[in-house]
Amino acid sequence: MTDDSPIRDSFPTPGEENPAVSPEVAALRAAILDKLIYQVGGRDERASPRDWFLAATLAVRDRITDRWRAANDQSAAEHHRQVCYLSMEFLIGRLLSDALGNLGLTETMREALADLGVDLEEVYAQEPDAALGNGGLGRLAACFMDSMASLSIPAFGYGIRYEHGLFRQLIQEGRQREVPEDWLSLGNPWEFERANIVCDVGFGGHVAPRAEGGVVWHPGEVVRAIAYDTPVVGWGGKWVNTLRLWSARATDPLQLDAFNSGDHIGAQLNRVRAEAISRVLYPGDESPAGQELRLRQEYFFASASLQDMIRRHKRLHGDVSTLAEKNAVQLNDTHPAIGVAELMRLLIDVHGLEWEEAWRIGLATFSYTNHTLMPEALESWPVALMERLLPRNMQIIYLINAQHLEAGRKAGADDGMLAAISIINEHAGRRVRMGHLAFVGSHKVNGVSALHTGLMKTTVFAELDRACPGRITNKTNGITFRRWLMRANPGLTRLIADSIGPRFLDDPEHLAELAPLANDAAFRQAFAAQRLAAKRRLADVVRARIGVAIDPAAIFDVQIKRIHEYKRQLLNILHTIALYNAMRAQPMSRWTPRVKIFAGKAAPSYHQAKLIIRLANDVARVVNSDPTLHGLLKVAFLPNYNVTLAESIIPAADLSEQISTAGLEASGTGNMKFALNGALTIGTLDGANVEISERVGLENIFIFGLKADAAGAMRRDGFDARAAVAASPELQGVLESLVGGVFSPEEPDRYRGLVEGLLGHDSFLVTADFDSYQRSQRQVAERWRQPDDWWRSAVLNTANVAWFSSDRTIREYAEEIWTLPAR
Question: Residues of 665-682 as b/e, b for ≥16 C-beta within 10 angstroms?
């Protein structure tokens, strides 16, 4: 076994002995060859790395499928309550290494392939990242699916099978350029197309009364949702759940009369319009057409998923009146919130229930996770668009709102309170507030960190919390340690297992046993050696991707996440410039070598975020080519951030940048991944940083900046950024260099608008927190120069973050929201 190989295979499952290796290797080798010949259509002496990837994946998939069928049969026989997790994103990353690790087959596969002259790492590299997500929201959904399977909680993950997903990011002349992601161009060996599972989803048309009472919706357009299933295998292979993604198809793919008359393009317009729904994740919504497509996507997958849930329920349990007893639907943010109205439509119009019973069922079935405190990020749709595109759903939303407001009026709410809790915002061009709809239609609404949940009650949902007391609860996010420690950092995992035993592989709480070793010099040295090995590997990645040489001995200062102003990559870049200026001004000082590493994508229409990406690359170009620094400072912006790249960066990070404006980051999960791997956090008291600081100790984290209440007051009451800049000579020098075109000599005014925006309207308090951040970064440099102190803190970070396992989070959901036990 190599030092970098996943290690669970080498430890027996509790109560079991390790199986004999040779027969298992031989069987897997035979299965791979069988798949290569009969399904891939290849020959071993001519097979390409892609052929071997397909053959290996199909061989593993067969082993998963038997367990998958058994789990479904057991769930049906025992009448388990099932979770339906509705999410616009599932950022699942590569699946082969995950599946092998959870099945305990990594080393068996390595040996089987080696016997065939094939390297497992090369096979891994053939798998593209599934382009099904953007950032934390989608990765959280993937971690939750892993944990539900690992805890044997029956679940379906529901989303969209995006043909291109989020764009592939190129950096050209410092600018972000978006091109289609072609992850499905060569097929996906993990998925099963379910041609027999088809749901019709309607749009437009009109609503008419039925002669026998009630109404009937006559859609003007019907799109078919075709199911594609991917198995999600849990830890130890005990349970397998289903990720069901919907692909959009036209009911009439070709208008033959138009085609035969010579209109070859027009004959396919219906197909193009229908299939656009599952083409791209988050199409730009700055235009009316873009807004309509976004709404079509959300309704498409919510409707298909709920139809499928009801179909399965009726097959297993018969009567829809017991739907809530056997199904729990979790809305992951507001994207599937239209499901609240859609389930009412299905129960009333299709299955004949009365309003009161349908509402009781829906309320008991739905729960809603909120992921943002920014009102502008809580989705809302124009009433006119909803009435045109989803006329029956809009009628139901009006009825839900009337019932909701009447209850508020009876409870004594005045007109101002009623306006605040209304699902329809009458003061902003008449828009449907999807967060309000999800809140009103769910029996539980959860935040994703203690701070975030508390702020929900005083900000975005303050009035709704008063109207529906007790509905808001907290479920702090978590991550799957199987992906983010065992698979991403096998060397460190091996070191931990050798030091405290393998029990933490099954129960992360045993990581706490590592804490005493923080005072063991030999262990700290071994811990640092593992980090150095990971940094060397990342240095190779950086050189290969962008041609920049970085020193593994330097502190790796990392900020990788979606590019957004509130996440404040700009603050980090301004510090980089300040450090650059200081190094040039004081060349004889003892500087700590540092590599600033950035990665992340900006939404195509988010021009300010794209300008920040360009600034990062402009600063990198100047800093990296300045010989006077002698390599003491390097800047690297790595393009096309995804799960696989994160798995290379996180084990190599020394400093984790979690520097959002306090009160705006709901939780974060990158902060947990970094801390788990021993990186020290520099951050504000925002999101889960608060809870991380409580777990690891304030002496092992670098906290700076305004707290949430002060930041909120400053954002609300106004802030004089010019005075803050005038009081900070270093920041003043940084902004002057930007205005003077130091980093854009070919276009000196490139960043003048950015600076003027900071000075005139610093909404995210970059200038307010700059000096505090700068001081904290100096503390980072001082700690780095004291290796014993640094690595003691690093070990304690790893030892004390077991609570942030997604297994813990899912147990809390299961027990307190879904009311089903983890088995």
Answer: bbbbbbbbbbbbbbbbbb
Is residue 48 predicted with pLDDT exceeding 60?
yes
Active-site entry in 475, 596, 673, 750: 673
What letter would DSSP give residue 89? Answer: -
Q: Taking the complete model, does pTM exceed 0.85, yes or no?
A: yes
Banded model confidence at residue 823, pLDDT cuts 50, 70, 90: low
- Give the β-pairing of 431-433 and 424-425: antiparallel
- The answer, yes or no, to whether residue 187 has pLDDT greater than 50, is yes
Catalytic residue (one of 110, 244, 279, 371) = 371
pLDDT one-digit tens code per residue, 653-689:
999 999 999 999 999 999 999 999 999 999 999 999 9
Among 313, 433, 561, 614, the one annotated catalytic: 561
Query: How far does Cα 651 stand from its chain's mean position?
Result: 18
Q: What percent of the chain has pLDDT over 90?
A: 90
669 is catalytic: yes
743 Cβ contact list (under 8 Å, min separation 6)? 577, 615, 618, 619, 621, 622, 737, 751
Question: CA nearest 345: which of 400, 387, 388?
Answer: 400
**φ, ψ at 742 (rounded to 5°):** -60, -35
- Which one-letter amino acid corresponds to residue 49? P
Residue 35 among the catalytic residues: no
> Residue 371 catalytic?
yes
Instruction: For residues 565 and 660, give the distance between their C-alpha atoms in angstroms, rounded to a whole number.
Output: 9
Question: Is 567 tagged catalytic?
Answer: yes
The mean pLDDT of 396-417, rounded to a whole number, is: 97
Q: Which of 279, 404, 562, 564 is catalytic?
A: 562
| Catalytic residue (one of 669, 681, 767, 809) | 669
Output the DSSP codes for 364-401: HHEEEE-----GGGS-EEEHHHHHHH-HHHHHHHHHHH
pLDDT tens by residue, 24-46: 999 999 999 999 999 999 888 88
Closest CA to 264 of 274, 276, 255: 255
Catalytic residue, chosen from 244, 567, 750, 783, is 567
The average confidence (pLDDT) of the chain is 94
**702 contacts 683 by C-beta, under 8 angstroms:** yes
DSSP string covering 411-462: TT--HHHHHHH-SEETTSSSEEEHHHHHHHT-SEEEESSHHHHHHHHHTTTH
Give bridge partners of residue 638 from the DSSP assignment.
599
CA distance readout (Å), 822 to 351, 591, 818: 32, 52, 10
Q: Which of 337, 341, 334, 336 is nearest to 355 (CA)?
A: 341
What pLDDT sits at residue 1?
A: 40
What is the rounded CA–CA span in Å between residue 436 and residue 449?
Answer: 20
Residue 9's contacts (CB-CB under 8 Å, 6 or more residues apart) are 104, 105, 106, 107, 108
